[in-house]
């Protein structure tokens, strides 16, 4: 298994990060992709605000220029051509797929299925599929959604019921406690190991061809995210990863890489 480091501008241009991640990439033990956080990525021409933290809300030319500068910095700093992209805050725009395809990106993983960010002026992915799908007729850009499933007796109605449960105070918590409906994302950030294993079972039993797990790399050091505030939290994060990967092995789910996925869909 090789991790995929989705790199933003500060990491792409940091000599220490280039040395550490670049060495892993050169040895074939890691892959690197692009993650655009517009508020730290030149050119800095927009107002810094919540709306503009979703890159897809920027003027299309500005979004594209930020991406191209970041992509080029990654290729130069890490000695590899990035083939996967994830928008910071999952902020896809109407023109994003076009410039991704034009610059050699083969996979986008910005869609967080079953999540709605419209109250923050972001995108609504609550009705997007969980399975991978082509974004264009020419089959140049594959969408690889992050894995988030519904669990519980009402999970088949989750797409309709979960948004409603979030609008009524305490209803979501009550449905989860009663085992009626729960949304489970495959991440160690805010999701317990027990919940994650239930999510893995649902995803596998529903026949998802690929499971996408993710977390923010700052969580690997205490104090940088609300999910890992001390060494005990960090131990729990590693226990989560060990538990999930062990369980997936037991269920005969094998790890893969960006390169393998690209090769598989191009056959």
Report what the structure shows.
The chain has helices spanning 9-12, 15-26, 60-78, 96-102, 158-167, 171-177, 193-205, 231-250, 258-265; strands at residues 4-7, 31-36, 84-87, 107-108, 133-134, 142-143, 148-151, 182-185. The protein has 267 residues and is an alpha/beta fold. It has a domain at 1-146: Glycoside hydrolase/deacetylase (TIM Barrel). It has a 6-stranded mixed sheet. The protein starts with a strand and ends with a helix.
Please summarize what this structure is.
The protein has nine helices and eight strands. The chain has 267 residues and is α/β, with parallel strands linked by helices. The chain is globular.
Mean pLDDT: 95
Cα-atom Rg, whole angstroms?
19 Å
CATH-defined superfamily of the domain at 1-146: Glycoside hydrolase/deacetylase
CATH topology group of the domain at 1-146: TIM Barrel
CATH class of the domain at 1-146: Alpha Beta
What layout of secondary structure does this protein have?
Blueprint: E1 4-7, H1 9-12, H2 15-26, E2 31-36, H3 60-78, E3 84-87, H4 96-102, E4 107-108, E5 133-134, E6 142-143, E7 148-151, H5 158-167, H6 171-177, E8 182-185, H7 193-205, H8 231-250, H9 258-265
Parallel strand pairs: 1-2, 2-3, 3-4, 4-6
Antiparallel strand pairs: 5-6, 7-8
């Amino acid at each position: 298994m090789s991790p995929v480091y989705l790199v933003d501008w500060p990491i792409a241009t940091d000599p220490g990060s280039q040395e550490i991640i670049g060495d892993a990439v050169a040895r074939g033990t890691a892959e690197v992709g692009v993650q655009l956080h517009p508020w730290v990525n030149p050119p800095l021409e927009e107002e810094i605000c919540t709306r503009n933290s979703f890159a897809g809300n920027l003027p299309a030319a500005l979004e594209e220029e930020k991406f191209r500068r970041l992509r080029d910095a990654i290729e130069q700093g890490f000695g590899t051509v990035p083939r996967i992209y994830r928008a910071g805050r999952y902020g896809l725009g109407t023109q994003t797929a076009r410039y991704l395809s034009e610059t050699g990106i083969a996979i986008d993983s910005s869609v967080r299925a079953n999540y709605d960010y419209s109250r923050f002026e972001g995108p609504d992915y609550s009705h997007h599929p969980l399975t991978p799908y082509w974004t264009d007729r020419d089959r140049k850009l594959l969408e690889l959604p992050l894995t988030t499933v519904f669990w519980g007796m009402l999970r088949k109605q989750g797409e309709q019921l979960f948004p409603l449960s979030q609008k009524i105070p305490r209803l979501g918590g009550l449905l989860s406690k009663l085992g009626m409906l729960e949304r489970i994302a495959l991440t160690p950030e805010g999701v317990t190991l027990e919940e994650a294993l239930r999510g893995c079972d649902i995803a596998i039993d529903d026949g998802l061809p690929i499971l996408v797990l993710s977390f923010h790399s700052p969580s690997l050091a205490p104090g940088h995210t609300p999910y890992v505030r001390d060494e005990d939290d960090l131990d729990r994060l590693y226990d989560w990863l060990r538990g999930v990967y062990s369980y997936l092995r037991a269920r005969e789910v094998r790890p893969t890489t960006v390169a393998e996925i690209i090769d598989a869909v191009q056959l």
